[in-house]
User: Fold these one by one.
Assistant:
Number 1:
Amino acid sequence: MSNRIGNWELIDHYATGGVAEIYRARDTRSGEVVIIKRIRPDLEFDPEKHAGFYRELQLALLCTHKNLIRGIAKGTQNGADFGVLEYVDGPDLAAVLERAKRAGLALTPEVASWLVSEVLDGIDFAYRLTDGAGRELGLVHRDLTPRNIFVRYDGQVRVGDFGSSLASKQEPAEAVVGTPGYLSPEQAQLQPIDHRSDVYAIGLLLQELLTGEPAFDLSNKWTGKKNDAALLKAHQKNQRRPLPPTVPDDLRLVIEIATALDPADRYQSAREMKKGLLRSEHPPRPESAAELSALVRRLFAAELRASRIPGLASFA
């Protein structure tokens, strides 16, 4: 492969995904460090996987909000499609939570509230995206998990991976789409879903941030065997782990509303859930970004040093 794709000079191979090769690259015009996702040349054509790749790129180009991974460009070179995306300089939230647990550290209620509010702001923007005729797309992310939320070393938060998203007016899925442990009851029952399904997932996220454990017991992982049916049934009946007494009462209320079994009993939008956080005794505050930044830099000190390239801040 050439060391250049269009106007972007490749820096290194960053990762390999199920559909794409992922590279860090530098814009030869502006010097900006970016991510390039390129369809894997060794991959046989899979309509569903390829459609998800293109959908993610198309939506990323519309995502101009500070809490969404920004799309920059898309194109084709030597018959392979690629997309250029914002480079998020930091780990995903799943890695942060896992490493914090191993280190015996936890997010404070204030940081958890702020982080969730940033996710809500980004998702609310995505919900309001419109087509060429000005009509709202009515998107539902369907896969809001810690692995699809990223924390930069400066404490800023980004939501990514809209490859599983759909318009809420479409027909219900024929199979469960989403990640075990973060499915809404209606998702697990293959019922029609809307924004309130994502609100439910964000409620689960808030619970995990405050307790250090996923809201659903994932000890029996989904492998297509008998235990998976039990986990799916737990999702359908909303059989989450009980909230421990360490969770503040005000944030406990936010979680309980967001994760109500009946969508009609939940916050009806991301914006409404954000208002619930603002009314709590632990409202989101911008200064929490510095605390989150300090935690991530402490937990990923070695990775931070190893990932430095010219043009990136040192965070010394």
Number 2:
Amino acid sequence: MWRVMNQYMDTWNGPADFLEEPVSPITGTKFENAKSTKMVHIAEFTADLIKNGKLKLDPSRNDRLKVTWHDSCNTARGMGILDEPRYVLRNVCNHFYEMPEDTIREKTFCCGSGSGLNASENMELRMRGGFPRANAVKYVRDNYGVNMLANMCAIDRAALPTLMQYWVPEVDVCGLHELVGNALVMKGEKERTQDLRLEPLHGKEAAE
């Protein structure tokens, strides 16, 4: 949907002149890249909040996870959102590992299940199509002990768990902002012992 709104809709309908150019009400940042569409991606917005010190984060809350990042086709190759999610990850996780450079960023591999292929009757096609991505994940699992594949695409969130279960069963899948939520320290919060999946935080296992 992000690519539809930022690329196709802008081409079909022209600039959204009836909307104001986005300015963060929290940091005052003017998002110049949204001058035409007037839309800011949540990863851009979150990265800006972190850069301006507006979020209190405790990355140790994600220490049970060794994370790698999947560049979703539409947001990465299609729209060039490459650095913002990595900036967020490096601020909310202490253990982040990139897959081989010829499998990420502009050279990213497809999840194998986009374009309406995310259905059970297409399972063999999905597993074959997603194998290159799974193989790159296997590399970081074998070399760095990666156990979490993060991404920011709804289709990927639905497709990648099945792909991982088949090819790299030791690796789970999450969204970028699940990790942000785990690390986020709220004013006046009670001591947290669990992450958003109700799993014990690192060092809090005995409390369970």
Number 3:
Amino acid sequence: MFSRFKFGLCLLWLVTIFAGCKDGQTIIVPDNNSPSYDGVPTIIVENYINRAYIDLLGREPLDEELNRDLASLRADELKEPARRNFISLLQSNEDFVEGDSSYKHAYYQRFYELVKARMVEGVSDGEIGSQLGIYRFAALSDSLNGNWVSYERNLNNMQKLQNVLDSRWQYREGLIPVNEMFARMLYNYFYDEINMNSINFIRACFNDLFFRYHTLAEFDQSFQIIEYGQPGQIFGESAVDKLGYIEILVNSREFHESMVRWAYKNLLAREPNSAETDAFMDDFYKDKDYQKIQLEIMVTDEYANF
């Protein structure tokens, strides 16, 4: 009975405080300080550092890196600004790192490989280069034989594969946005080989980009575009060929939402709830800054396990 009485008094006190506040007035709630991380065991902090290196760079930290980052995080009491600096270091620092060239180089190489794994079954750059060489030899033969239609087709196929290879450094340098990298993964020899014929191509596009099956209406419009090269509408936009179709898909809000979902699934092994998705969508749809999504997830207590 005494506990209920105390609860009633606290509730009445809060109601009184809020009722007495004017618009725009700051409310200071006592005993609502930022959490202390003094009791977090060192092994938990080390696990956080290890996990971040693996997720962002694809490797564990060296002993000196682990000790440095542990000391830095501890010096700032594991608070969010310290975590933010740590994650930003791995994503964007350009200082020389033996074996990686730099953290930034290693980060974008890792991201490129993850995108290839998602879209083209992790085909290696060596395989891409070999197929590019086949097209180059065919184009040379066509030029010698005066077969200019085939020559142009082979040059076009070469350029598609070169665009895939170039997407790694062009994305790293900010020359293309993340959705353009995904467009290139859809528009090349290997994606067509993996998903042969128009039916499989359409199904794969929806599954790989949106993690779902297409609707019947979406399939009918898509098939008209891909198979027959006739005008069709998808996501309220019109296209008449494969490239135009791909551009609509990767510029859609649903693609951007799928990228938020991908970040959560990769980093937290779960889907985001609607509030978490909404928190990122407006900015990400405009700025295409996938690194910011990763950063905001990786500074949370949930990711760090603090």
